[in-house]
């Protein structure tokens, strides 16, 4: 049995589809979700739906019961809360006797200076502390973190940030989900660490240039000081914690923290990861 946490989310749904495409029978799959009604797609495919709420540790052991392999998708929200949630999930996986835990971490978690990286370091440590057989999927930034807002940027003619010419070795959500499915369907994965990035790092000025070509409208990149970028984001109505996280990420992007590339994603996919221009084309289709 393979259990996928967050199976109703955008990433989790893609993982489930990829597992099924790889020949995993629906009867051998389960999604563990906070709200079962949100997993209608999985249920319609014959996949079991289990209740699992990271904030309710009592739900986790049952959700993980019988799991030979568990995809532990990192939680969203405030960092301190995520630390507690991941520790609870690791403890529950140990109690359930899970055969292999695949955890979606962050690229170069052990040395990554982003503020949110400490959450992933703690989660990796929790898995080790419980002596769980684990494989670390150290995912790079989703390309969609930037392309999701490209339609609006093309209309405005501007992408705003504070990353300067810093480069981002991102990967698409679909490619990272396919890589997770590849790991979950292979033997001998315990102890492996995968650095899952795109093959070519790109900058926000290059993103603007790609949007210009695809949309036929001039799109420029405007680089702001971090405090001015924080004000800009706050005016859009984003909550303060998210504003802080986004600014922190771009400050470190400017310093090269997300520019590292690795061949691991290509190796798992058996093909090149989708490049930036492909993601831009999809976003502006």
UniProtKB/TrEMBL annotation:
Domain NAD(P)-binding residues, every copy: 6-186
Q: SUPFAM superfamilies in the record, alphabetically? A: NAD(P)-binding Rossmann-fold domains (SSF51735)
Domain of life assignment: Bacteria
InterPro entries per UniProt = NAD(P)-bd_dom, NAD(P)-bd_dom_sf, NmrA-type_oxidoreductase
Query: Which named protein is this?
Result: NAD(P)H dehydrogenase (Quinone)
Q: Which organism is it from?
A: Allonocardiopsis opalescens
């Amino acid at each position: 049995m393979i259990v996928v946490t967050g199976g109703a989310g955008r990433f989790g749904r893609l993982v489930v589809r990829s597992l099924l495409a790889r020949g995993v029978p629906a009867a051998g799959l389960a999604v563990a979700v906070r709200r079962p009604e949100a997993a209608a797609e999985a249920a319609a495919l014959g996949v079991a739906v289990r209740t699992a709420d990271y904030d309710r540790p009592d739900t986790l052991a049952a959700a993980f019961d019988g799991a030979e392999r568990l995809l532990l998708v990192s939680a969203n929200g405030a960092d301190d809360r995520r630390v507690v949630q991941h520790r609870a999930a690791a403890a529950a996986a140990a109690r359930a006797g899970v055969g292999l835990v695949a955890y979606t971490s962050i690229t170069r978690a052990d040395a990554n200076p982003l503020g949110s990286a400490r959450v992933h370091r703690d989660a990796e440590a929790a898995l080790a502390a419980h002596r769980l057989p684990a494989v670390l999927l150290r995912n790079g930034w989703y390309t969609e973190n930037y392309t999701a807002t490209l339609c609006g940027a093309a209309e405005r003619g501007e992408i705003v940030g504070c990353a300067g010419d810093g480069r981002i070795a991102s990967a698409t959500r679909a490619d990272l989900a396919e890589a997770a499915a590849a790991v979950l369907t292979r033997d001998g994965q315990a102890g492996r660490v995968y650095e899952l990035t795109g093959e070519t790092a790109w900058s926000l000025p290059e993103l603007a240039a790609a949007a210009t070509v695809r949309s036929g409208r001039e799109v420029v990149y405007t680089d702001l000081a971090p405090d001015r970028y924080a004000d800009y984001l706050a005016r859009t109505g984003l909550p303060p914690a998210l504003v802080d996280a986004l600014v922190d990420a771009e400050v470190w992007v400017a310093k090269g923290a997300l520019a590292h590339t690795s061949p691991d994603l290509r190796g798992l996919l058996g093909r090149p990861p989708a490049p930036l221009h492909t993601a831009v084309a999809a976003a502006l289709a």
